[in-house]
Amino acid sequence: GALDLLSELSESGAGAAAAIGLAAAELHIAQGSYAAAAGIIDHLLGLDLQLTDAASVLRAESLLGIGDAASARDILEPMLSPDSSRPLPYVLRSRAALLLAEASDSLGETTAAKATLRALAESAQDENSLLVALDGLDARGGFANADGQRQLQAWKDSATQPLASAADFYLAKQTLRQGERSKAIEKLKTLSTGESSVAMRSKLLLIQAFLSDGNDSGAEEEIAELTGGAQSAVTRARVQFVQAQNRFEQGEFEQAAEQFAAAAANGVEDSEQATFNAALSAIRAGDEEGFQAQLALLPEVSGDALRADLLLERALLLTATGAEGAK
Questions:
Q1: Could you give the CA distance from residue 156 to residue 139 in angstroms, rounded to a whole number?
Q2: How confident is the model at residue 69 (pLDDT cuts 50, 70, 90)?
Q3: DSSP assignment letter at 152
Q4: DSSP states of 229-286
Q5: Which phi and psi (to 5°) does residue 254 adopt?
Q6: How far is residue 66's CA from residue 59's CA, in Å, rounded to a whole number?
Q7: In this model, does residue 291 exceed pLDDT 50?
Q8: Collapsed DSSP state (helix, strand, coil) of residue 167
Q9: CA–CA distance, 5 with 292 (Å, rounded to integer)
Q10: Which of 62, 66, 162, 173 is deepest in the core (most CB within 10 A)?
Q11: Which residues, 6+ apart, have CB-to-CB distance to 61 below 8 Å?
């Protein structure tokens, strides 16, 4: 079985056992087999291999999947502590923070979950991670009360980008929810200028607001601006990226893979992430051919942190064929 194979590999090379073991654990997590993933990682730990921080994050995710949120939290909290002697790479830290927030939610510690997401938002080095953190806060009602809106205002006033613009967007979103539609629409028009993700989200929310008001002509004008014009390629790619994220969250992995791939092909700013997401979506859709097509693009991906994740996906593909027989 898989565990016997890992034991044999550890005798010839700890690195090989660790790489294949982590890939197999990632595959099990993608398939929802959290207990199997936890078993593989625990076995690797028992072999006394030098595992990476990525293994600890995977272990926490697998424990969270089988309902052991407390153990997941106990792994993640020290890793994210400002006092940690070995700070996590940025991409891994973002993933760990989102898992810690989920673990806190499962334990009924909503305040702790919000604090984790606020810290992630304030330390985010890219717009996508920032918006994921703010989306998490918004989903937990983090901006629904006066304290949350004061926090947004403070971020807006800080003039630190992209946090300030993102905070302004969520203020406009709250204004729209409170029924002050004219005020919200004017703010969204201001924010919709440019090609950033915040600008694209503002345009999409503006379209929704117009449609809700029965202003079809206003919505059509915004849609035309999104899909046409001299600089429409980047805008279309951003729209495709957000649409793909929505598809992925809804479990529509085949459509998500197509839209992530299209976003990358059309020149979305974070094309490396779009390619990675397309590969991951293809895995979850059970589309091996689609995954292989995305793998062909991965050798050109730059950036050490993303490369590590993509290499893990490559190892996952190599072990996927034998995973069923190893269960």
A1: 20
A2: very high
A3: H
A4: STTHHHHHHHHHHHHHHHHHHTT-HHHHHHHHHHHHHTT-TTHHHHHHHHHHHHHHTT
A5: -65, -45
A6: 11
A7: yes
A8: helix
A9: 25
A10: 62
A11: 29, 34, 37, 72, 99
- The structure tokens listed for 61 are 């995710």
Sequence-ordered strand ranges (E) for 108-223: none
C-alpha 117, offset from chain centre: 13
Amino acid identity at 108: G
Tell me how far apart the alpha carbons of residues 271 and 7 are, in angstroms, rounded to a whole number.
38
In whole angstroms, what separates CA 113 from the centre of its chain? 16
Question: What confidence score (pLDDT) does residue 272 get?
Answer: 77
Q: Which residues are CB-neighbours of 86 under 8 A, at least 6 positions away? A: 53
Residue 20 and residue 57 in contact, taking contact as beta carbons nearer than 8 Å: no
Lookup result for tokens 């985010």: 124
Distance between CA 26 and CA 57 in Å, rounded? 11
How many Cβ atoms sit within 10 Å of the Cβ of residue 272?
20
Q: Mind giving me the DSSP string for 28-64?
A: HHHTT-HHHHHHHHHHHHHTT----HHHHHHHHHHHH
One-letter amino acid for residue 128 of the chain: N
